[in-house]
Amino acid sequence: MPTPDLAPRRSRDPHDDTKDRMGTVPETADDAVSVQMIAPDGRFEPNAAAEEFLPYLERLDDDLLRRFYRDMVVARRFDTEAGHLQRQGQLALWPPSLGQEAAQVGSAHAARPQDTIFPAYREHAVAMIRGVDVVDIIRMMRGLTHGGWVPAEHGNFHLYTLVIGSQTLHATGYAMGVGFDGAATGDPARDEAVMVYFGDGATSQGDTNEAFIWAASYQTPQVFFLQNNHWAISVPVTRQSRTPLVARAAGFGLRATRIDGNDVLASYAVTAKQLDDARAGRGPGFIEAMTYRLGAHTTSDDPTRYRGADELAEWEARDPIARYRHHLESRGIVDPAYLAEVDREAADFVADVRRRTLALGPADVGLIFDNVYAEDHPVTREQKQWLQGYEAGFGEAR
To answer: Active site residue: 67, 170, 218, 306, which one?
Structure first.
């Protein structure tokens, strides 16, 4: 079966003269084949590119297949509720992940407990799966903490990174350390890999390209997971790259695969193989997940200023949750009672998040001085005491 067209047709930007200078601008999603397991209508219909990854689906039993659906639904409800909380003045900012649930849930479940994950800032589903309390994400976006959790205590899931692309270098440095430690045993249940998430906009950053170079040079046990949601804030991916991003990764010497990012089974199978290959010493891998950001870049963004309603509607019709639900229903893995149970669980989950968020107090005035040094330092201690005294001088009037 031909791979479905994963890129909506766009009219040419009248302000973009690149076509005149460089010839026809390629529609990047048409220029490479994406691995697909589930057709857009929910039928299990792997394409030719999926053949080598099919054995990895044998790891999935019905319970885990249902878990994929549950995680996607709960993650979306949390994401939506957090957006509401921001609009109601409870958060400074919120980066929605609406529409990207399949890419995140499939890849997160493919990682093993010993693997280390470096996120960007919208990997809410991955954080949940790795055991992060999502209210810790809320606390960070509310300005109450500089990080929110200790990675080693929360599924080896590192802190959100708001500096675009910098986490790719952090991940590569960590993966180099894993390689230098010589911990590879040949046992995939014990050996460690590193996975880093980033968006298409980050591929235009120097940090990310440097990370590719270092990873390829040192053959790090690492997977770069690119969620290509087609928009780097207001810049379309077709303006960022003249070639498919998966082809650019191959140019750096990475094992590169493109997937249908709205297909949770494709995300799982390809990521599982890429991570196994990384652990086995086959060097760094790269996955380009073709998905779409249905919401705004963040709550400070207005996507109606730069993309059309037709494009949005086209991708809404490819909703990854509806697609996967149809797949599970066609196989008899879920029934209406289970679907209703998941909806109730999601509602209870976000009600608890809201209750706990509203109970959060203000940030401690001295927080900015904490963790500047690994140990207590007299200069920061003195500065903190001065600021606390200064603030206390305002009394109740503050």
So the answer is: 306
pLDDT over 80 (residue 83): yes
- pLDDT band at 93; cut points 50, 70, 90: very high
DSSP string for residues in 266-326: HHHHHHHHHHHHHHTT---EEEEEE----S-SSTT--GGGTS-HHHHHHHHTT-HHHHHHH
Does 297 participate in catalysis according to the annotation? yes
HSE at residue 382, side-chain half, CA atoms within 13 A, is 3
Q: Are 34 and 6 contacting, i.e. CB atoms less than 8 angstroms apart?
A: yes
Mean predicted confidence (pLDDT) in 231-243: 92
Taking the C-alpha atoms of residue 279 and residue 361, their distance in angstroms, rounded to an integer, is 44
Angle of CA points 128, 235, 162, to nearest 5°: 40
Which one of the listed residues 297, 323, 325, 327 is annotated catalytic?
A: 297
Report yes or no: 224 and 205 within 8 Å, Cβ to Cβ: no
3-state secondary structure of 366: coil
Residues 6 or more apart whose CB falls under 8 angstroms from that of 312 comprise: 294, 303
Catalytic residue among 293, 318, 323, 325: 293
Q: Is 154 a catalytic residue?
A: no
Structure confidence by residue, pLDDT tens digits, 353-390:
999 999 998 888 888 898 889 899 999 999 999 998 99
242 is catalytic: no
Tell me the pLDDT tens digit for each residue of 183-229.
Answer: 667 788 889 999 999 999 999 999 999 999 999 999 999 999 999 99
Contact 117, 193 (CB under 8 A): no
Contacts 24+ apart (CB under 8 A), 362-367: 362/144, 363/143, 363/144, 363/145, 365/391, 367/144, 367/145, 367/146
| 100-109 pLDDT tens trace | 999 999 999 9
pTM of model > 0.85 = yes
Token pair of 37 as six digits:
């397991």
Whole-Å CA distances, 207 to 147, 211, 217: 21, 6, 15
Q: What is the average per-residue pLDDT within 302-313?
A: 94
Query: Strand runs (DSSP E) across 185-230, as ranges?
Result: 194-199, 222-228
What is the spatial distance between Cα 297 and Cα 341, in angstroms, rounded to a whole number?
A: 31
